[in-house]
Design brief:
The chain is α/β, with parallel strands linked by helices. It has eleven helices and eight strands. Helix 1 (18-34) packs parallel to helix 11 and helix 7 packs parallel to helix 9 (188-202). The structure holds 2-phosphoglycolic acid. 2-phosphoglycolic acid binds next to strand 8.
Length: 249
């Protein structure tokens, strides 16, 4: 693959231990050390509790030159009292460069609204993170494109073109996310239709695809000019599978 793409691993609430997390990173590191021409932007988004240790690993090994650290969420505001939240200021001290915002599990399972996601994007930008903003319809019903347009309008409300240009957008149809019953990846063709809607709404922002990406389908998505990369969930904590994905891009 000659174009530079984003390969982003969203570990969600996995793995169970730091030792397992280190095992995943060792596999990635070993693979990248064996490959000279890895031109892509690799971002690993572990759970908050591992960020500090993983930042140390990045700083003290070759991995830090080849991959960057992302967080899976950010507190809506850097000031005030927010029990259970982790602020942008804290994340910044941990070497975090990217922040996932508006993941569908937060939107649909935890009730995060477009308005909350909008505020989180602004907080992420104020902290100079690159927000990875997740959007996508819950079901592929007839008017899903209208849903997507409204979600984009509300999620990015009040952001300037310059601010929108600092975001990565991940198109993740919720029904395609591997942990949902009966999930299967979207086709590149129909993902491209949604990506066209995203670019029409936001300008020429980088748009990634996410939802059941694995080693069998990653090439079909990443080979599309309009797809800037992939956001990989379940397959990113399976070290053999993730290394296989890396070997195909
Ligand atoms: P999945 O998850 O790759 O396991 O479908 C993607 C995501 O939720 O970001």
């Amino acid at each position: 693959m000659s174009n530079k793409k984003y390969i982003i691993g969203n570990w969600k609430n996995h793995p169970d231990s730091l030792a397992e997390a280190e095992g995943i990173l060792d596999s990635i590191s070993e693979y990248l050390d064996s490959r000279r021409n890895f031109i892509h932007s690799l971002v690993v988004c572990p759970p908050f509790v591992f960020l500090e240790e993983i930042d140390k690993i990045f700083q003290s090994s070759s991995l830090g030159k080849k991959a960057q650290l992302g967080a899976q969420d950010i507190a809506l505001s850097d000031s005030g009292a927010w029990t259970g939240e982790v602020s942008g200021h804290m994340l910044k001290r941990l070497g975090v460069r990217y922040v996932i915002v508006g993941h569908s599990e937060r939107r649909w399972k935890l009730g995060e609204t477009d308005d909350v996601v909008n505020k989180k994007i602004k907080t992420a930008l104020a902290n100079e993170f690159a927000p990875i903003v997740c959007v996508g319809e819950r079901e592929r019903y007839e008017s899903y494109k209208d849903f997507l347009k409204q979600q984009l309008a509300d999620t990015f409300a009040g952001l300037s073109d310059n601010e929108k240009g600092k975001c990565l957008v991940a198109y993740e149809p919720v029904w395609a996310i591997s942990s949902n019953p009966g999930a299967k990846a979207d086709t590149p063709e129909s993902a491209l239709e949604s990506i066209a809607i995203i670019k029409e709404a936001l300008g020429n922002v980088p748009v990634l695809y996410g939802g059941s990406v694995n080693s069998s389908n990653v090439e079909s998505f990443i080979s599309q000019d309009q797809i800037a990369g992939v956001l990989v969930g379940g397959a990113s904590v399976n070290k053999e599978e993730f290394v296989k994905i890396l070997s195909l891009v």
